[in-house]
Design goal:
Blueprint (H helix, E strand, L loop, with lengths): L5 H15 L21 H49 L2 H5 L3 H29 L1 H11 L10 H9 L4 H20 L3 H16 L1 H11 L4 H24 L10 H34 L1 H5 L11 H8 L11
Length: 323
């Protein structure tokens, strides 16, 4: 009786592996599979990978259907008071109360101060308390989460193509068109039509901008602080707008309309500059990957491991900025 050769032993062992994994994958001829260092077949890994992708897609879809309606309602309720105080002025509240322009503007300014002061601690508390508790509490107590600026189309487009700068430019172009029509027209119906470009061109910027900040900030505390600072700047803009609509310049408020038109143009310029900067940083991290990770390298973790990710955050060479 002949003794099995090394190649025969390998074939027997490989067949045994395939029989063992039969419940996960079909048995393949020896020429159609390979075995990695852990003894698992590449075909099995591919099957698992496809399953993971499908599970991830379903989980993302479930999150979208669960969170987006709730967050949209949060934005709406949060923004009602801040929008209505301006509408109330147009409806005659200032005249009815006998307030001067300065007195009314001081009242609205005071309204925005708590929004600015609460943004940073609120975002930092989200992780400790949990959004399922903190956000409904904030909404119920003060209506203080974020402004109602959800644009479904821009949010879907930016996620679908994993870009933030392009949707921001497109939305800003809507705003520019709206303000340009508003400034150049005098007919009532044309002025109303301009609102259909101005409103989404203004409010549609916020969710994409927030997503851009969150995508490019790591770790958690840097991301939370960045988002909070962004909203602080947004609410500071609310104070500016309060003082830029004096009744004596109504009803068209030409100077303020020009200011908003300039802001929309500046938004496009800074978006392009930011995209260029982030692209440059991605290339730099790729070129200098070894130098960046060298201070964190050890014998066990030649690329720095978890310590490198924790300390470098979004500056880690494997962290790619979203454009």
């Amino acid at each position: 009786m002949s003794t099995p050769s090394a190649s025969d032993s390998h074939s027997i062992e490989s067949s045994g592996k395939i029989e063992k994994d039969k419940g996960i994958m079909e048995k393949l001829p020896p020429s159609e599979y390979d075995v990695d260092t852990e003894g698992r077949t590449l075909e099995k890994e591919a099957a698992v990978s496809k399953e993971d992708v499908e599970l991830e897609r379903r989980a993302r879809l479930k999150l979208d259907w669960t969170l987006l309606p709730v967050m949209t309602m949060f934005y709406l309720l949060s923004f009602l008071d801040r929008a209505n105080i301006g509408n109330a002025r147009v409806a005659g509240l200032q005249t009815a109360l006998g307030l001067t322009d300065t007195q009314y503007q001081i009242c609205v300014t005071i309204l925005y101060v708590p929004y600015i002061l609460a943004e940073l601690p609120a975002n930092l508390l989200l992780r400790r308390i949990g959004p399922n508790i903190l956000m409904p509490t904030i909404l119920t107590a003060w209506g203080l989460v974020v402004t109602f600026q959800v644009s479904v189309i821009s949010a879907w487009w930016s996620d679908r193509y994993n870009t933030r700068g392009v949707p921001l430019i497109a939305i800003s172009l809507l705003s520019i068109a709206g303000w340009a029509i508003f400034l150049s027209a005098n007919q009532k119906f044309v002025l109303y039509g301009a609102l259909y470009l101005m409103v989404p061109g203004i409010y549609g910027l916020s969710p994409v901008t927030c997503a851009w900040v969150a995508n490019n900030s790591e770790p958690y505390y840097r991301r939370a602080s960045s988002i909070a600072i962004g909203f602080m700047a947004t609410n500071a803009g609310g104070i500016l707008s309060t003082w830029r609509f004096p009744t004596k310049e109504g009803p068209k408020f030409t100077k303020t309309a020009i200011m908003n038109l300039v802001f929309a143009c500046v938004m496009i310029i800074f978006t392009l500059l930011n995209m260029l900067y982030l692209h440059t940083q991605n290339q730099r991290k790729t070129r200098h990957r070894h130098e960046i990770l060298k201070p964190y390298a050890t014998d066990e973790e030649p690329e720095g491991g978890v310590r490198a990710w924790v300390e470098l955050g979004d500056k880690h060479p494997d962290f790619k900025y979203t454009l």
